[in-house]
Amino acid sequence: MVSKKSDKQTYPVQLVQPDGRRVLDREHAALVADTDGARLRQLYEDLVVTRRIDVEATALQRQGQLGLWPPLYGQEAAQVGSAHALHPDDYAFCSYRETAVAYCRGVPPEQLTALWRGVAHHCWDPNQVNMTNANIVVGSQGLHATGYAYAAHLDGADIATIAYFGDGATSEGDIAEALGFAASWSAPVVFFCQNNQWAISEPVAVQSTVPLVRRADGYGIPGVQVDGNDVLAVLAVTRRAVERARTGGGPTFIEALTYRMGPHTTADDPTRYRTAADTEYWEHRDPIERIRLLLDREGLLDPEFAQRVADTADDIARRLRTATVEMPDPDPASMFDHVYATDHPLMAEQAQQFSAHLAEGAQP
Amino acid sequence: MITTFAAALNTGLRRAMDDDTKVVLLGEDIGKLGGVFRVTDTLQKDFGDNRVIDTPLAESGIVGTAFGMALRGYRPVVEIQFDGFVYPAFDQIVSQVAKIHYRTGGKVTAPLTIRIPFGGGIGAVEHHSESPEVYFAHTAGLRVVAPSTPADAYSMIRQAISLDDPVVFFEPKRRYWDKADVDFEGEPDLPLHKARVCTHGTDATVLAYGGTVATALAAAKIAAEEGHSLEVIDLRSLSPIDVDTIAESVDKTGRLVIVHEAPVFAGLGAEIAARVTERCFYQLEAPVLRVGGYDIPYPPAKLEKHHLPDPDRILAAVDRCLAA
Lengths: 364, 324
Hints:
The structure holds two protein chains of two kinds.
Chain A: H1 26-29, H2 37-62, H3 76-83, E1 91-93, H4 99-105, H5 114-117, H6 126-129, H7 140-155, E2 161-166, H8 173-185, E3 189-195, E4 198-199, E5 202-203, H9 204-207, E6 223-227, H10 231-246, E7 252-257, H11 276-283, H12 287-297, H13 303-326, H14 345-359
Parallel strand pairs in A: 1-2, 2-3, 3-7, 6-7
Antiparallel strand pairs in A: 4-5
Chain B: E1 2-4, H1 5-19, E2 23-27, H2 43-47, E3 52-54, H3 59-71, E4 75-79, H4 90-97, H5 100-103, E5 113-118, H6 133-137, E6 143-145, H7 150-162, E7 167-172, E8 179-181, E9 196-199, E10 204-208, H8 212-225, E11 230-234, E12 237-239, H9 243-253, E13 256-263, H10 268-280, E14 289-293, H11 304-307, H12 311-323
């Protein structure tokens, strides 16, 4: 647990304090020197909108419109800040909670819920936004990102690949193997660990007795720990890592310290394993409030702007709700589609048997 | 050209790499050493270490990174050094590689070939003689094949690499040094998913794949001397299975013996027996019989000759069929 005594010294890289004051860190501030008023406002808007999406989806689950939802509430800055460091042709490999990353990559809000409603195993076309769909086997995507990054390097493409995963996933062998492969190949990949302190009910101390960022040391990979609730700091360190990847510098490991304010998924009950005091502590470090205070301090938060952002968020939430509720159940016969990319006699046989079964008027 | 099974595979890989610069090889010791069975011999010298990639010693890592490369348009061919080493990669193969096309609604393919030397008969130590094929045959999204001859090794590896679906490619390691004539210029004579009728016969059908095809053919030869005409089929594709070719043969002979060296319990033979029973119920003159490995971990090398199906055990099964 971090100390409550000093906000300023809590995190290794921080550019904005919880009360909205800037931190004097010339090295990292220089990485986001282009973040003028308009860009700050855009970051703020994305934070607000993605929280609104998350709240709406959580409500949709509670109302029976989604089977499950993994809330990102509290982690908006880690996701928005890192996603803003990426170019459109960079490629993001995600876990399953990266709703804000997907939104910032350009996934229309209407597409964010299909998997959780159970009408498909995916939400968007990965090729359209250079971002994979949800991957629920945690850690495996670290290897995929490493392979993709290495292939991009072979292509001569100056892009970066980023792998998002959580603190729990760092215990998986696949993350260890990914760090080993990435280091051995000097692959242009950024490992972005959102340490939200909890893997369902297990505190991060169950995964590791040392800060997760130190795992990079043994592989000879530079590691950086950042205040994950500080969108500017996350943007800064991710930009540096992405630039390093793009210019042949190899992999970087980022540990973004954040907090999952809600449950692991809507099927989880965090009151069984954590205290209200713990959550309250992090409420005071809210990533959106922090940038709101910064905007206010710097005279960028006029009522008109605040209202516009609120209206945008509500409008997107409405689109999400309407699209979700209207998603039709898939055609039963489509169950046999896309098991294979090429013709397969067993699929043809079973699809035909199933169609005949339905044609006889069978009801599930 | 007379060549060994291993050399035929090597030529197949070389041709695939010549034809398509996106074909890359990944595995342990496949570079300078050329693989422990020399299947990738000289390929790194000729194509460079960006296309024949010696990886860290981690099977999940090999398959997982190859999968990532496939997502960027490459066609990786992965070598798992031995059958018993594939289990750490099992999650990547069944959860990721096999399901990505389905999970993305057809938007993403994973054209990976996963080569696995499999089976016994070479006197190896533990974990080096296993037959894990049915784990993969049970998984939707994967194709599973096993050539039994140098000619098929050459044509099937090329077909597997060019296929847009992931293929688990089992190589019967005791056949690596078998020699035969291979036409390196011709086109494959069979699609990848078709079985081959190796010898025609009328009294019973013997179905085998991989390392046991040669054993079945030896049994058929002995049977012929004893006046029994056996039809031997090489299954070649373990998923999907070519039920048509098998059923056609059983309709003719009325009897089927399935041979594989994997343990019999819940093995591929059980699936084939069930399907043949459905298709050929009125043509069968006897129950479908299975000859396979015992349901034990692979035994020590000095005992493997008792574990592996041999012509005697195959002929005993044929006799039981014929007596029915």
